[in-house]
Design brief:
The chain has about 325 residues and is an alpha/beta fold. It has a single domain, classed as Vaccinia Virus protein VP39 (Rossmann fold), CATH 3.40.50.150. It is built from 11 helices and 7 strands. The protein has helices at about 5-25, 50-60, 65-75, 90-100, 115-120, 160-170, 195-205, 230-235, 250-255, 270, 285-300; strands at about 80-85, 105-110, 130-135, 145-155, 175-185, 255-265, 305-315. A 7-stranded mixed β-sheet has the order 3-2-1-4-5-7-6, sandwiched between helices. α4 (about 90-100) links the parallel β1 and β2. The chain is globular, with a radius of gyration of 20 Å.
Length: about 325
Amino acid sequence: MSAGSGPFVERLRGHAARARRQAPGAAAEPSGSASGVQRGQLAFWQNPIARAAINRRVTGDAQLAPETHFARRHGPSVPAPLAVSMRASNAKLEIALLESGPCERVIGLHEDRERVDYANGKVPEPLREQISFQQGEFSQWEAPEPVGAVVARSVLHRHDDLDAVLDRIASMLAPGGLVIVDEYVGPSLSQWTDAQLEIINGLLARLPDELLVELTSDDGRLKRSVGRPDAERWAMANPHEMVCSERIVPGLDERFERVEVSLYGGAIIHQLFSRIMGNFASRPELVEVLMELDALLTDGRVVASDYVWGVWRRA
């Protein structure tokens, strides 16, 4: 087998070709600057090509968002009319859940008033009596009745008391109740693996300088490498980030039954694109290839998945 053939290379070529066909539409996105750089895109999930690739990984359809997919597929089996959302977000999943089945009411919780107001502002006016975000902590909130579903989006990895949180979820769920999860589950405290760092830094070394400009800096500095931070210093500076993320999936598996779980990757693209994603706005074909490389390395178990979309059920 030559170096230029084989299923791995052919899969990359196929995705690159598809990205080139999609490129005119992607180029029509507003550039945000004369150079075509999207300065507000600091993370991979903010790029439309990356989002389409994630959709394809999770739902099988680049145009079908995971929120809609999971609500349509699992919303009809929610066993009680009340659902609880553990963190204020864009309300997409909460809205889709309400529209998909027997769920009649969603209560969302968040400690920050600004985030609560933001989430409530994303709820369409006709649904505001049924979906309501309120200021409060999940650990102190008492469910007024058995809960049919708990939505955990980017929240479990922020808890150092993960076992207590998962036990609390289990205690409030009605029999057959669902936990719908969208989470970072990669290395705790940003302790990136040797394999991750080798691949990410190898890619950074081969990308042109114009794609490496740090968008959070005004001095034009370039992102040359990614390192592994000191765990103790990281924990002190970020007490609510990636606290015990590696334990999330095992903790869910210990308490609940898997219904549908998609460990969709991110070990490479998460840190590769961090703070430079907007530089790739006019390079959809390159984003597509890098997303596929991440998927191939995840599927081949060269690296573990940093992210999960999934549903677990209480027995």
